[in-house]
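**Protein of interest**
===
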Amino acid sequence: MAERRKHKRPLRRALGWVATVLAVLAAIPLILTPLYIVVDPVSAPMLTRYLTGQPVRREWRDISDISDRLKAAVVMSEDGQFCRHWGIDLAALQTEIEDFFAGRPTRGASTITMQVARNLFLWNDRSVIRKGLEVPLAVYIDLVLSKERILEIYLNIAEWGPDGEFGVVAGAQAGFGIEPQNLPWDRASLLVTALPNPHVRLPGNPGPNVRRIAGIIEERAREYGQRAACVSPQLRLEL
């Protein structure tokens, strides 16, 4: 019996350490998310670049100082139900789960809030584990932060260029050499095309396919842009 107890002690210690690490990791978003009501966060990819000596360009910009056209284009391109859901789009997520178990290609079903959760607290490589963690984090973020603040954080931490450009200010300056307010529709839509893959899609030097995608984004934003009204009570769009 004494011998068995000796063998169990290392296992218990290891399990205790694992439980402690998991508890700390779980506590990080629980503690930091309320702070982000007033504190402007740094994303995990930005932090990785800082720690590895790579350049980071990011200038925070309040959401009120960002073009309404750009806000509408981002919402309609990335998450058309943003103002209506509680952090996750249940219909899109259900379809994603069904496609996964049926062996069909999956799109990700990521809402803007889920992307904020990933950029702040998780990693970028696609996996079922990461997606499973995104869901409760997104619900918690949506509970704690306002829609306006969630989009403001997203617009300021999203990767917007291939050389460490984070946030819409760096993206607009790298693409067009301009500030991100009062953007015309064509430039607002071209900026949004970079979000899925800022290392390949360059708004300042768009090819025919990028221009085609930008045209689709502009058309949706012009027609349905008022769906983004939750992020700006004074939203005024030239639709």
About this structure: Residues 41 and 82 are 21 Å apart (CA to CA). The chain has ten helices and no strands. The chain has two domains: 1-35, 36-231. The two ends are 78 Å apart (CA to CA).
